[in-house]
Batch of 2 targets.
Target 1
Amino acid sequence: MAAPSTHQWFKSSYSGGSGTECVECACTRDGALIRDSKDQSGPSLVVRREAWLAFNLALRDGKMLQL
């Protein structure tokens, strides 16, 4: 069993109420962590500060990638 996280995790205000498609994020000194809210003891994606800032600025400015 993994040790409890000491990070302050939060969900997006856009997360659905059903709990089926949520991710949680935690800010760190070096960037951010991202995890599946349904598997809190599972793996986390580590995102460096510069990439996290660029991602958030793109969201704010409506510059989403078209897949």
Target 2
Amino acid sequence: MTGKTGSKTGVIEQGTSQTHGNTHILHFLVRFPRTMEAVWAAFSTPEGLAAWFTPADVLEPRLGGAVTLRDLGSGRVTAWDVDRVAEYTVEGAGRIRFHLERDGEGASALRFTHEFEGEGESEAGWRARFERLLAYLRV
């Protein structure tokens, strides 16, 4: 999907992948023509996560809270800063971090990181999820 910040479409910038031994780290930058407040619920609520990623059967929205992502497993909320950072560390699936920041007037950017060991998600898998996210947010 293409577009520019401030346009009516979101942008999924090229993902990057790093490997350090058996640890893999995926990074994406996704831009939205929506405020942080308008995008936050997609990463921080069971309804938002279910709409584009996976159902959150348990989500205690606080640092140290329990989280169960149906397709991935159970773990903890390992970072939580309302309207900015939601990070979930799930046994067997690694650390999944959503970091929102302002990106100009009325726009926001997601700095996404998925750190995991062994076999796991691909850039293509996350790109497909972010396409669903943009459709969910109608950008």
